[in-house]
């Protein structure tokens, strides 16, 4: 996403824990797009004080943020009742509590500027309670989708605020997170294809979008409304 947004001329603040990888990416982007400013900050989103500190530094570096993408996420977990509480809790903390810290920092900035675009990365798995190792993950992705919708509710009727909130519901997109998952590969798209669909929805500032739209728009409705037995066979 950083590569695609930089190609469109957007300056970027990149954050993650593995800062060496971000430095390499920033160098690659700087070489390809010398007019684009790229800053890098190490950030563990579970360190909430660091979230607010890094946001403040990125705002200072770039003279403000037009858009924040709340993306950091974990897919760890195990069936509820099988002793996987630690992994499930880690997923909930990263995907929900840390996402809320990022939304807090982003929205405070946007309210102050009276403008901005918050993008929250949910998942197709938010469409329904999911079994086994996906139960906690699916619950977190439903939670962040509701968090974003709540923020959107706060903006209803607020004149003078040019703030948009977009929730993306990606299907299977090749990434480090799902490189081991064989059964998903039938519907998996490569990273640039999946990200292109996400960037397109982001640029339109839609409220919500399934990405890629096909087949995940219709499939999302099947996941949401089909009988439990049917969904169980699909996932
Ligand atoms: N790929 C898919 O098919 C798919 C589908 C639906 C939704 N999603 C969602 O898309 C988002 C990105 O996932 P991905 O597929 O790109 O997975 P990924 O390749 O595993 O990337 C996850 C990213 O989050 C960062 N991250 C994880 N924990 C962090 C933490 N505590 N602090 C700061 N950064 C952290 C990682 O960087 P560091 O490890 O360096 O910190 C990495 O850049 C996630 O929210 C995921 O749930 C993905």
TrEMBL record:
Belongs to the short-chain dehydrogenases/reductases (SDR) family. This is Short-chain dehydrogenase. One of its GO terms (molecular function) is oxidoreductase activity. The keyword Hydrolase does not apply. InterPro entries: NAD(P)-bd_dom_sf, SDR_fam. Pfam families: adh_short. One of its GO terms (cellular component) is membrane.
């Amino acid at each position: 996403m950083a590569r695609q947004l930089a190609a469109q001329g957007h300056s970027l603040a990149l954050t993650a824990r593995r800062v060496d990888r971000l430095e390499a990416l920033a160098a690659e982007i700087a070489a390809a797009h010398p007019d684009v400013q790229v800053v890098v900050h190490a950030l563990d989103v579970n360190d909430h004080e660091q979230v607010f500190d890094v946001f403040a530094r990125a705002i200072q570096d770039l003279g403000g943020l037009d858009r924040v993408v709340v993306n950091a996420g974990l897919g760890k977990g195990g069936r509820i009742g099988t002793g996987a509480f630690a992994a499930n809790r880690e997923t909930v903390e990263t995907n929900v509590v840390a996402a809320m810290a990022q939304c807090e920092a982003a929205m405070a900035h946007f309210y102050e500027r009276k403008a901005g675009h918050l993008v929250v990365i949910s998942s197709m798995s938010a469409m329904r309670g999911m079994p086994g190792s996906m139960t906690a993950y699916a619950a977190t992705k439903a939670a962040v989708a509701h968090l974003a919708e709540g923020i959107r509710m706060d903006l209803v009727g607020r004149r003078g605020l040019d703030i948009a909130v977009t929730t993306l519901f990606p299907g299977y997109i090749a990434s480090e997170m799902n490189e081991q998952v064989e059964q998903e590969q039938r519907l998996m798209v490569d990273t640039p294809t999946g990200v292109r669909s996400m960037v397109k929805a982001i640029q339109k500032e839609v409220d919500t979008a399934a990405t890629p739209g096909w087949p995940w728009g219709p499939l999302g409705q099947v996941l949401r409304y089909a009988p439990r037995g049917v969904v169980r066979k699909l996932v």
